[in-house]
Amino acid sequence: MSRPIRVLVVDDDFRVAGLHRDVVASRTGFTALESVQSLGAARQAVRTQIPDLLLVDAFLPDGDGVEFVAAAGIDAFVLSAATDAATVRRALQAGALAYLTKPFDARVLAERLDRYARMRNLLVTDRPLEQEQIDRALAIMHGGAEPATVARSATEQLILEGLGDDEASAAEIADRVGISRATAQRHLAGLASRGLVEVRLRYGTTGRPEHRYIAVRR
Fold it and tell me: pTM for this one?
């Protein structure tokens, strides 16, 4: 099982920082590091705690958060009350994967974090990436639909590779290959109808059965 994604919140308002940190802590697969209120503290935290993702305010008392993002070389979201186009462009040029304007609903940040986890899962591999995988990763992060260039057969092949010799649920397969649960379920149903995967039922403590899938080896 992969280790949790470590997230550092950088915001000079400790109340806002705490709210954002709470959202991170609520998401499965994430670890919320202690938030910091200045760039000096952020630089120290980057050295000692080695975060995977930064959530950074654009303007901080001791410097420019966007410049910090550009220099850090770490995946980052910029969270700011600034809505001027120049600041947004600077953030994107600095490499920010998302720009959220404050104040925003906690669900918005939660959704972006979940997208990031799926994109990261797709790109953390030692194998060369196909163009379809790169397109899918970009579409996941930016909220687009599955790219039209990705053929159904290519998606099904990814699902079969992600399944391997294991038995897994649609949610587990979705996490492994970087697609939505609904997409995984749709393709798994198609594979099952053609006899390429077998569907098994596992009953949990609630009595509601969970569908589990295993590849049929011929």
Answer: 0.68
